[in-house]
Amino acid sequence: MPLANDIIKSIRKVVGKQKHHLHEPLFCGNEIKYLKKTITTNLVSSIGPFVKKFENQITKFTKSKYAISVVNGTEALHLSLVACGVKNNDEVLVPTITFVGTANAIVYSGGIPHFVDSEFETLGIDPLKLEKYLEEITIKKGKFYFNKKTKKRIKAIIPVHVFGNICKIDKLLKIAKKYNLVVIEDAAEALGSFFKNKHAGTFGLVGCFSFNGNKIITTGGGGAIITNNKSLSKKIRHLSTTAKINHRWEYIHDAVGYNFRMPNINAALGYAQMENLNNFLKSKRKLFLKYCSEFLKSSRIVVIKNPLHSKSNNWLNTIFIKNLSTQTKKKILNFAHKKKFI
Ligand SMILES: Cc1ncc(COP(=O)(O)O)c(C=O)c1O
User: How many Å lie between the centroid of ligand 1 and the Cα of residue 99?
Assistant: First the structure.
């Protein structure tokens, strides 16, 4: 299997000396100092200064107005869907390539995932196919669009920035506008990715991040929702804190809320990680450029690159190998998995 051996050799060359494996968090800053502070002050749970500090770092970095930190990326999506009014069998368009959490969140909200094709260039939703497809399957009633087959309303779309690559968000926004769809961006993998200098997650009505241990920064487990809409941000924050009316001792809840707020101890970790985000981005970029130069002359291997005007965080550098036999694929994946490269 000469192709498999050649590719393995190339991957070894690029990442062989990396001390850090894919999906491993890197703690090289103030993590222990801040975590210690949460313990010495007895503020490890839902109340504490790091939550606000961490949220401020996110709004500053993404240039969004509001950020609400939550327990994970899946619940960030779930809460966003609920707050945006997805319920009762509303259909939500979602790409075929994503993590299962995107589709799960739709089901948790009462919606139905409606899968649409992803494209090769960015691995995000294919806008050309989407437009054609919506033309075929929808019928307009009043201001809204319904699925001719299921009779259900198509209410929202979740563009996903797969592996940190910005999907064709400008084209998807145009389609969403035409079909009156709420846009909830799944930027779980895309902290540090930009399109035309605008951060991932700031294009839709809301954007969601994950800070799971495998992401570009981690809070252990965690997520965040960003938005520029004040009333929506208030609604999301309220729903994430059990919909409790603010009072020192009374427990009055005005809706069925969720207990999804990020604890202070996790936010402390995130605060330290955010201080190093630019360094993490630099080393991911360096690795990406190494892949590009290694496979530059290859006729069969393409490194997934940023389309025009977009800048990926290179969270998960991806190569596409053309005409791959199952056997060769297995050999490469076995090698990469053993070495913790995938
Ligand atoms: C694209 C995508 N969406 C959603 C999620 C869900 O995030 P979490 O694992 O924090 O629940 C992830 C993360 O794993 C993801 O990669």
Answer: 6
Mind spelling out the 3-state secondary structure of the chain? Answer: CHHHHHHHHHHHHHHCCCCCCCCCCCCCCCHHHHHHHHHHCCCCCCCCHHHHHHHHHHHHHHCCCEEEEECCHHHHHHHHHHHCCCCCCCEEEEECCCCHHHHHHHHHCCCEEEEECECCCCCCECHHHHHHHHHHHEEEECCEEEECCCCCEEEEECCECHHHCCCCHHHHHHHHHHCCCEEEEECCCCCCCEECCEECCCCCCEEEEECCCCCCCCCCCCEEEEECCHHHHHHHHHHHECCECCCCCCCCECCCCCECECCHHHHHHHHHHHHCHHHHHHHHHHHHHHHHHHCCCCCCEEECCCCCCEECCCCCCCEEECCCCHHHHHHHHHHHHHCCCC
Task: Check: pTM over 0.70? Answer yes or no.
Answer: yes
pLDDT along the chain (342 residues), means of 10: 76 71 88 98 94 98 98 98 97 98 98 97 97 98 97 98 97 98 98 98 98 97 98 98 95 97 98 98 94 88 88 93 88 83 67
Q: Is the CB of 72 under 6 A from ligand 1?
A: yes
Is any ligand 1 atom within 6 A of the Cβ of residue 101?
yes
74 lines ligand 1 (CB under 6 A): yes
